[in-house]
Design goal:
The complex is a heterodimer of chains A (334) and B (166). Chain A contains ten helices and 15 strands. Chain A has helices spanning 27-30, 52-71, 91-97, 113-126, 141-148, 202-221, 237-250, 262-265, 280-296, 314-318; strands at 4-5, 9-11, 17-25, 40-41, 80-85, 104-106, 132-139, 163-165, 168-175, 182-187, 230-233, 259-261, 276-278, 302-310, 325-333. In chain A, a hairpin with a 3-residue loop joins strand 1 and strand 2 (9-11). Chain A is globular. Chain A starts with a strand and ends with a strand. Chain B has nine helices and no strands.
Chain lengths: 334, 166
């Protein structure tokens, strides 16, 4: 296992690159502070589709299409298409993939899906099983809300710990081309369950998973938080971000100023969205948009993306199960 | 009787002297760090917005009493009018916005009941009229009806028993 460092981190001796990427977001995300980092801001959240599920599928198809165009690659030249989303049986991804002929790997990791897909894609490239892999994900506020929570128009008073599913889609092509940010390490997290049961506070539930993966990654690579210019957690939200900081402080970690959280930041402070954003698209658009733009413009040299996911379902919540959570870390360098 | 296997990693880690985060300890930490709920603000909003809805209802009732023969008939007209109001505000996408501030103030009155039915009907319309909207229209309102009938039955039973004994 020459490509593993420490206990659990994969080190890519030949580093796969993200050679093409496309992000699109809904209008609310477009009103946030990262509007200029996204490739496209959609004019509305339906795109003329009859159902939000169709819109989500269309967003993913558009992201895939535009990424391929940018790369000048035809879909038949792709070796793998790896995609996932939040809906039951990841139907958005399967339906989007059904229009293509590329071998398809469907993945699910709730809001951490994108990191899972990136890591898997990088492994396939590194193992010489592929020369071009496309990874993609999408989520939509309305589809996630009805599956995990309530009808959109129901009289619900949201709590400060509630997060809002990001409407958006993102896709990227991994290959060994000359240019593009490199994936140097990937730390696949294990499932962490602290026995929390509140589906309205997934940030607190996910924070220990992020904490454990960060700790594992830093120990494996012999690095500190200071070795990264940005440590971007997926979508802990404001509550989860606070809990992660507390856990890191307790263990005397330094360099907490490097921590950023996609969910807490994507909507900005002016929009009323509880603890911030979440959803499969959240960490995907923040990584491919914001984080990689920071690498491109040399604002950052090395970034650690820690995508977190709450692996609950509407049924497990009703049956009183606790929320199992996961976090995967991907180290990126220019 | 089957037992779930014990978590392996915690016991091993303890032997090595690695301190892992303990669930109980972390749950305590979360409890201590939850954002405070704005209870006073929520109550004020609920009181005034709920009160406003009741005021509207009273105005409708007073007007209706001029046209209807009995008070019961006037009350029925009022209920229908308030349900219509709740439904229209829901369909326009306004009701949930008000609820974001007013909470129970708009959830408890009959407009709130109208909202639960209408919002579910709108939501599940996509899955068709029969198995979508028809089957799921009462997905939120259902429990209210079931336990409303059940508690009504229980109260009636107690009443008749007590009166019967007297």
């Amino acid at each position: 296992m020459g490509n593993r460092v420490g206990g659990k981190t994969l080190r890519f001796s030949r580093e796969p690159r993200i050679t093409s990427r496309y992000t699109l977001v809904g209008p609310m995300e477009g009103r946030g502070p990262y509007a200029l980092d996204f490739s496209e801001i959609l004019p509305d959240d339906s795109l003329g589709q009859k159902t939000a599920e169709k819109t989500e599928r269309l967003m993913l198809e558009l992201a895939i299409e535009k990424t391929l165009q940018q790369h000048g690659t035809k879909i038949q030249d792709l070796d793998f298409l790896i995609a996932g989303d939040l809906l039951n049986q990841i139907t958005t991804s399967s339906l989007a993939a059904s229009t293509h002929t590329a071998p398809f790997i469907g993945v699910y990791g709730a809001c951490s899906t994108f990191a899972e897909a990136l890591a898997l894609g990088a492994v396939l490239l590194h193992g010489d099983f592929a020369s071009q892999v496309l990874v993609g994900t999408a989520s939509h506020y309305q589809t996630a809300e009805r599956q995990f929570r309530y009808p959109i128009e129901l009289n619900v008073q949201h709590l400060k710990t509630n997060q809002m599913t990001v409407t958006g889609a993102a896709a990227a092509i991994l290959s060994y081309a000359e240019r593009g940010p490199r994936i140097t390490h990937a730390t696949i997290g294990s499932v962490v369950d602290m026995g929390l049961k509140d589906p309205h506070d997934m940030g607190s539930a996910m924070a220990p998973a992020a904490f454990q993966t960060i700790k594992q990654h830093l120990a494996d690579t012999n690095r500190t938080l200071g070795d990264y210019d940005i440590v971007l957690t997926g979508d802990l939200g404001k509550q989860g971000r606070k809990m992660l900081r507390l856990l890191l402080e307790r263990d005397k970690f330094e360099g907490l100023e490097r921590l950023q959280d996609g969910g807490s930041q994507i909507y900005g402070d002016k929009q009323s969205v509880g603890a911030g954003g979440s959803g499969a698209a959240c960490v995907a658009v923040m990584t491919l948009g914001y984080a990689l733009n920071c690498l491109d413009s040399a604002k950052a040299k090395r970034i650690l993306v820690v995508a977190t996911g709450a692996l609950l379902s509407a049924l497990t919540v009703l049956q009183g199960e606790s929320i199992p959570c996961i976090a995967h870390a991907i180290a990126l360098e220019q | 009787m089957y037992n779930r296997p014990r978590m392996q990693h915690t016991s091993k880690a303890h032997k090595k002297g690695v301190t892992l985060l303990q669930p109980k300890e972390y749950q305590q930490l979360v409890q201590e760090n939850l954002p405070p709920r704005p209870v006073a603000k929520n109550m004020l909003w609920a009181f005034f917005v709920g009160g406003l809805l009741c005021l509207i209802g009273q105005v409708v009732l007073t007007i209706a009493q001029n046209f209807e023969r009995t008070k019961n008939e006037a009350a029925a007209v009022t209920l229908a009018a308030m349900i219509l109001l709740g439904t229209i505000l829901t369909a326009l996408g306004i009701y949930d916005e008000i609820a974001e501030k007013a909470g129970a103030g708009v959830a408890v009155p009959i407009t709130g009941f109208a909202n639960t039915v209408t919002s579910a009907a709108m939501e599940f319309r996509r899955e068709g009229f029969l198995l979508g909207m028809g089957a799921k229209m009462f997905v939120i309102a259902g429990p209210v009806i079931v336990y409303g009938i059940l508690s009504g039955f229980a109260v009636a039973l107690i009443k008749s028993l007590v009166l019967g004994l007297l």
